[in-house]
Amino acid sequence: MATGLQHYRPPxxxxxxxxxxxxxxxxxPQVCLIARRIHDRLPDYISxxxxxxxxxxxxxxxxxxxxPTLGVQLNTYAERRIRGAIIDSLRDMDWAPxxxxxxxKLIEAxxxxxxxxxxREPAEEEIAxxxxxxxxxxxxxxADVQSVELERLEYEPGDGAGRNLLHFISSGEEAWPSHVVxxxxxxxxxxxxxxxxxKAERTVLSLYYYEELNLREIADVMKMHLSRIAQLRTxxxxxxxxxxxxxxxxxxxRRA
Length: 256
Hints:
- The protein is mostly helical.
- The protein has helices spanning about 10-15, 15-40, 50-65, 75-95, 100-120, 125-130, 135-145, 175-195, 200-210, 215-220, 225-245.
């Protein structure tokens, strides 16, 4: 909501600190919401309060750099700054164990090999077989890996609404004609990949990223255990990452 921003300038320009503080308080619920969504996918030892504090820094940066003449609401503009600040802080912490990151790569590679061998998207049991582990062990890997997959894929739906699933182009270059073309092609590639997914994974992605349900709500809708929903979401994301790394990243770039 852009209320009160038409005449707002950063404090360095006119010292209007009180107006800035009022805007921070007004948009603090947005920070808490984003921080909680990210925290839901993290190990228990990561502090929610720390994520919120970092998100507030991102919000303040958004307020100080916001230009209402561009016709974009502050909450829309601030979301990326808030989320980016939190994700950057997590990357700096390097909180994910090396073994967990290794397993994430192993699963991606296993999905690709099984897909090549079968000529279709592999089932969970087939991925586990490719990795030479049992299904129960594979599911444990998924549970561990889910916290690593923060913002690896952020895909903006057609109208830009809802959570992002695939952020591939930096905000400063989004208006470049070449990137507009690339983004359209990327959306097409992802849409086809999602369409070929197992139905359960496709449903989880739709409910999570488009309908903005949390994992517990999705578990209620699909009548599955919460941990199973988390596994399906992680497996779906790893499928997309495996697909993109071999299709999108290796194809020639179009130029405007």
